[in-house]
Amino acid sequence: MAGRAVLSVDVEQDAPPYLSSWRGVEEGLPRLLDLLDELNVRATFFVTGECCRLFPGPVRGIAERHEVGCHGYLHERFDRLPAGEQFRRIKVATEIIEGATGKRPKGFRSPNFRCSPSTYEALSRLGYVYDSSLAVYRRGPRPEPYGIVEVENTWPSSFLRLPAAISKPLMAASLRVFDPLVLDFHPWELVEMRRVRWDCRFATGKVAEERLRELLRYLLGRGVKFVTMMEVVEQGV
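and the corresponding structure tokens:
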């Protein structure tokens, strides 16, 4: 099966816009980091500026072992913001993340995978190298005219809501088509959640954690190499 995979993690408030709590950062993130240490897997975390402002210590802890990218400032819809406001918010979030981690983020992912050409123009002006705001299941404007590399997402976090008997063959098939295979989920999914959209309620907390562990072990056992998004860009998308 061998191939490359990226585990991408969007770090934000719990299940926006349904909740305004931060249990994902307070409870789910430590569990996730322990799991990744256990399996020796490096990941790419896209963090909102607001999260980094409120929780600089945990974000600094992420950066000690993993890549940290930017996920906007307030988990806003960038496709609905004027160009100047997009630039301002990304700039503020970028500076907050750099201040907390000591490293300027090189990658960006728009909340909800929604952006506009103005988003890419802002990223180019701010020195970003790559973007991950597009997905194989959700198209949009391309960033290449702005000198930005695109690393598309392959699977949303719905893979955590599938039993292993289904998710494993799906991932194996995806690896034959996509290089790298990019998985996306959130730390709040490792916390028991009830006041979220209906499809998420069936697999949060320990159920999601164990499914993630089983799937990562499955991929690692078949020779899949987990890399960060910046490593993908350096190696060639």
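(Above: one complete record from the training split.) The first strand starts at residue 3 and ends at 11.
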